[in-house]
Amino acid sequence: MLSRVASSVYWLSRYVERAENVARFIDVNYNLTLGESDSFGDQWAPLVYTTGDQIPYEERYGAPNRDNVLKFLLFDEENPNSILSCVSYARENARTIREIIPAVVWEQLNQFYFMVRSAARTPATLDQPQEFCERVRLASHMLVGATEATMSHGEAWHFSRVGRLIERGDKTSRIVDVQYYILLPDARDVGTALDVVRWSALLRSASALAMYRRQYGKITPNRVADFLILDTYFPRAMHFCLRKAQESLRCITGSTAGTFLNLAEQRMGLLCSTMDYTSVEDIIQQGLHQYIDGFQNQLNSVGEAIHEDFFTTSQQSGNQGQIQTQSASQNSQSQIS
User: Fold this and answer.
1) Which of 153, 171, 200, 305 is 20 to 30 A distant from 251 in Cα terms?
2) Alpha-carbon gap, residue 276 to 154, rounded angstroms
3) pLDDT digit string, tens, across residues 113-148
4) What is the C-alpha separation between 75 and 81, in angstroms, rounded?
5) Is 12 in contact with 96 (CB distance < 8 Å)?
6) How many CA atoms does the CB half-sphere of 226 hold within 13 Å?
């Protein structure tokens, strides 16, 4: 497979997953603040920090508030991590590899793109963003479903899965971090009914509430952290994402379990092994924020190794390579791989 094609497939999935997760960030924060713009104004600022775009945001909008943060994260074309930008980049990547992806995937992505474009021209979207965020999530799920059901599970599919799962694992880690260390306004709220509401909202943001209830029942912070970080069966858990991404890397390179043929496999294997032998008690003792910060740094190094091992074997092509490099560079600065 050409490195250009592999790169486009990989970034197509990453951008779609990123758009979905930005929608999840916004939705959980909107529910936690009940949509307020004043009394909970300080709680809109962290959303900009999670994407690493606080500097360009402050240069253009000044102090964070509800309306500006929503505009910036939903439809700002100058923000490469906005939903509109992510879907646009995904569509551009797909356009360059039309011969690789099934027609139904291209059609679904086009519908996704035009839905977002239409919403961007509708002022009411910023007033009530929950419905739009739900449509983004559903469009992403339909696109992933179309890819799973109609694309041959060869190298291209595996690159697509690696991109999606690395992005998903990173964003799950960030939404856990934001909830516990930023969205919680007062340490005295820990363990109260308000804390339970917040953790429930966090689980909903990852579509995890029903599966968590089935496994644990009562909501407690440690169990929520265990479920979203270390669970190996829930599809949005960090550990699950890395295990499946590692499987796809092995299928691409042809290596066997316990071996590696390049730096990306080595770094991924080290990160997976660390999680295999980590307990939630170890994480809490180390500090949840500190653990997630280290996880994100390691995941960044995996993303960099994938880029070096698979996508830079020759001179990269034109504008699309520039788009991908710019996005990766910006996200690296914010510890988003």
Assistant:
1) 171
2) 27
3) 999 999 999 989 988 898 999 999 999 999 999 999
4) 10
5) no
6) 13
Q: Residue 333 domain-assigned?
A: no
Place of tokens 């809490």: 284
Report yes or no: 239 and 229 within 8 Å, Cβ to Cβ: yes
Q: How many structural domains does the chain have? A: 1
Answer positive or negative: Cα dihedral of 208, 209, 210, 213.
positive
15-34 pLDDT per residue, tens = 999 999 999 888 877 776 65
Residue 293 counted as domain residue: yes
Residues contacting residue 103 through CB under 8 Å, at least 6 positions apart: none
Let me know if residue 332 belongs to a domain. Answer: no
DSSP letters for 121-169: T-THHHHSHHHHHHHHHHHHHHHHHHHHHHS-SSHHHHHHHHHHHHHHH
Question: What is the pLDDT averaged over residues 306-320?
Answer: 67
Residue with token string 């923000």: 79
Q: How far is CA 322 from CA 16, 19, 22, 159, 319, in A?
A: 18, 20, 23, 19, 5
Q: Is 336 within the bounds of a domain? A: no
Both tokens of 320, joined, read: 């699309």
